[in-house]
Specification:
Distance between the termini: 18 Å
Low-confidence stretches: none
Helix content: over 70%
Mean pLDDT: 79
Oligomer: single chain
Strand content: under 5%
Structural class: mainly alpha
Shape: globular
């Protein structure tokens, strides 16, 4: 009995280690397969509509794929152009930051008896640590974005072929499920439905938050209000920490471009209100329980995804874990793992 339990533990440990190794060293290959697969699930209803109107499958698949690529390229181009104009103001912001730091040093020296020299040493240490952390995050973000853009043609081609040959995939899934208790095709259909519901919901949530943030920043009178509002909304695609990162930039701009502390506080109010509405009303109504992961499973998946794949892993962690849960719920032997990942407290698997 003990030997059997030990063997199961060793097998599970080996499976986990091999999975991490494959995910780490096969990152690029897996991403150029996973990203078009997710997009194919999302675009399939659109392709079927085009085919129903007499458009050939190859043309319908191509039009749907190019439409998705153009939308992504349009958003990146818009933000890129806006950030270029924002970059021109960085020297002025740097001067204002230096002035604010000088005033803060004088205040601390007068009221806390900490010399300016000691403050400079402490600030340099903090800036160095912050710069290292921020630089690593920026490098990860730009490297992932650059890798994605460099593979966009390959991803587009794979996406078109996946949509064109979807019947072949269905026949393959039927063949490998023949004579088995669980249908692989049924599992994939559930994953496809989950993916479509989740992505449509996330897209709508980002759109609503972009409008709320932009309108709030415009009312405050914040410079680059639309850019900051859209950026803060887009960063929410990274669960949990994206909200925090998205609120730092508009807060810093308000602090450096306005002379009154009322403006940073107003920015905090706008971001806090938007996130309160998103967390308590918008996301539950729009996205709902499509992924059905409990908070602990979500956080663990987010941390693991970031450790293995960086920014890409953090973005894909929640939907991929949700897909894994669908598999666990469908396969009786994996039901306990699905229960561990899920939100429901009742046990429905078969012993």
């Amino acid at each position: 009995m003990q030997q059997g339990a030990l063997q199961r533990y060793v097998n599970l440990l080996l499976a986990v280690v091999l999975t991490v190794v494959v995910l780490h060293y096969g990152q690029r290959l897996l991403l150029v397969l996973i990203v078009p697969s997710i997009l194919a699930f999302l675009l399939l209803p659109f392709v079927r509509i085009l085919e129903g109107r007499g458009v050939p499958r190859w043309l319908a698949s191509t039009l749907a794929s190019f439409s998705a690529i153009l939308v992504v390229a349009g958003v990146i181009g818009f933000l890129g152009a806006r950030f270029m104009s924002f970059r021109d103001e960085l020297p002025q912001l740097q001067e204002k930051l230096d002035g604010r730091i000088d005033k803060a040093q004088e205040f601390v020296a007068d009221h806390l008896s900490i010399s300016t020299g000691e403050q400079v040493v402490w600030i340099e240490d903090q800036v160095r640590n912050l710069g290292e952390a921020g630089g690593k995050l920026a490098v990860d973000l730009f490297s992932w974005t650059g890798a994605f853009l460099s593979d966009v043609v390959l991803i587009g081609i794979i996406l078109i072929l996946m949509l064109m040959y979807r019947d072949r995939f269905r026949q393959f899934l039927d063949a490998i499920s023949e004579g088995k208790e669980v249908s692989a095709l049924e599992i994939v259909d559930r994953i496809a439905e989950l993916t479509r519901h989740y992505l449509r919901g996330v897209g709508l949530v980002i759109l609503i938050l972009a409008v709320l943030n932009s309108v709030g920043f415009l009312i405050i009178g914040l410079k680059h209000a639309v850019l900051l509002g859209i950026t803060a909304a887009l960063l929410t695609i990274i669960p949990y920490i994206g909200t925090l990162i998205g609120g730092v930039l508009p807060l810093a701009v308000a602090f450096l471009t306005k002379d009154s502390l009322a403006y940073p506080l107003a920015v905090l109010g706008v971001v806090g209100l938007a996130q309160f509405l998103e967390g308590n009303f918008i996301t539950p109504k729009v996205v709902g329980s499509s992924v059905s992961l409990n908070p602990l499973a979500s956080i663990v998946a987010l941390v693991a995804g970031g450790m293995v794949w960086g920014i890409a892993g953090m973005v894909l962690a929640i939907p991929l874990t949700g897909m894994f849960k669908v598999v666990c719920d469908a396969v009786p032997q994996l039901n306990p793992y699905g229960y561990l990942l899920g939100e429901k407290t009742d046990r429905k698997w078969r012993s």
